[in-house]
Amino acid sequence: MITVAELLEMPHLRLRLLSGRDGLEREVSWTHTCDLPEPWQWLTGGELLLTNGMSFPKAAREQEELVSRLVDAGASALAIGEQMYCPPLTARFTRASDALALPVLSVEYPMPFVAISREVAAANLPQQSDRLMRTERIYHALQRSVTEKRQPTQLATALSQLLGCELHVCHRESAEPWFPGSPEPDAGLREALSRAEPGSRQVSAGAFVTRMSDGRELRLVDIPTQASAVLALVCDGRNVLDAVLMQHAATVIALEMSQALVDLEHRRRQGAEFLARLMDGSAEPRSAHSRLREAGIDPTSAILYAVSSDDSARLRELHVDLWRNGVPHLVVHRSGALYLLAPDEERVLRVIRSNIGPSASVGLSAAIKTVERIPEAAREAHWASRSAERIGKRTFRYGEATPFIGVASIEDAIALVDRLLGRLLEYESSHRGELLPTLESFFDNQRSWQKTADALHVHRQTVLYRIRKVEDITGLSLDRTRDIAELWLALQARSMLPSAAEPNV
């Protein structure tokens, strides 16, 4: 690789040394032209920085800091175009350059920067060939991963060896491994990931850089096509990571992720069809038991979760987080909720909360125990989810008493509805079905005749007639507080029942 001294010895380049003589043996891997503020953010290490000085600081302290920052970024030298825009170089700048052994060169006007770049490129052709070979190896690692059906963790290990650093593919928000089965990051890495906020991270070599507490450097590279993931590269500071190879590694990881997600989506669709049949009771029990075992689900210890949330996008992606965390599961979307068949474990709720947030309502059925009980468990999960929504508990397990109506099971609710509303439901089934909606609206409008009439777009007298008809059929009076309370409780219980679980009329 060519050195700064060798460039100075080329008379046709018209370079002159201004300061930093002790650094003339620094090797130059590439040239980088930059007139932006904070040019060190765009260096990978080993570059000759070429500038016309348009954003060069004027103050002595800031010029001194520029030298320090360039050295920290691994710059080999700084070359400034003469007769351009650079302010006068201060004595503090020169002393810093000499002290830190950063050669500062003057480029005679009108020597074009491209001539210097060509000389560096020509001198470093063997190194460029080495980069091409390493790039080829990176994509060959992906090819082997696909053809030999290797685990993603094996690809990450191969890339780590090729880049000469520790490599992790992490979930951006939780700092956990993105691929299931991957080794957990050590405590130092997790701590650095958790505090690596985008606004405070230093940019270097096309990556966000965070200094770890043990002195190591953490470089974060965005992964194309997968916003939830980040490539975390940990080095000890002695090895200079090649920015181009880092981006190739991120591309390879993105391709691996895309393939994994395609396979996962295929399994999700098949699982959704299977779970729908289980919930409908149309699956053959023996083959269903076999398929559940293949999915890693034991009915004796599994339950159904009914998850409701206003964030439909996150709800649709919940299966990805379950897969990442190694949770065996089946999911299906039905009636605005996500039904999840999975083990009855705290980690499942933890994944749900971390993915969807604390606002989700989660209903838990009783234990499945047998395939034949899954349709009933689906009704239990629905009941529990509605209970969670009503009382604001967010997580509700079937069998717990529902405080505001005092019933703990679907059977209790059916009995309550049947006793108080059974005759009304029977009447409604053979008539126009106007009485029950009128009763519900009457309660929703604080038993105001006129507000109910306005809500239903009917005459006040019509509301009065319908309510009197309800009283005749049920034998209850809306002038008595006890009867009012019982009817309201029955309506609340009915609203929480799955349609298939309503009383037979």
Automatic annotation (TrEMBL):
Every copy of the Purine catabolism PurC-like domain together lies at: 6-122
Membrane-spanning parts: none
- Domain called CdaR GGDEF-like: residue spans: 281-382
Q: Where is the PucR C-terminal helix-turn-helix domain?
A: 435-493
Q: Which domain of life is it from?
A: Bacteria
Checking InterPro entries in the record gives:
CdaR-like_regulators, CdaR_GGDEF, PucR_C-HTH_dom, PucR_C-HTH_sf, PucR_dom
- Which Gene3D superfamilies does the annotation name? PucR C-terminal helix-turn-helix domain
Family statement = Belongs to the CdaR family.
**What name is this protein filed under?**
PucR family transcriptional regulator
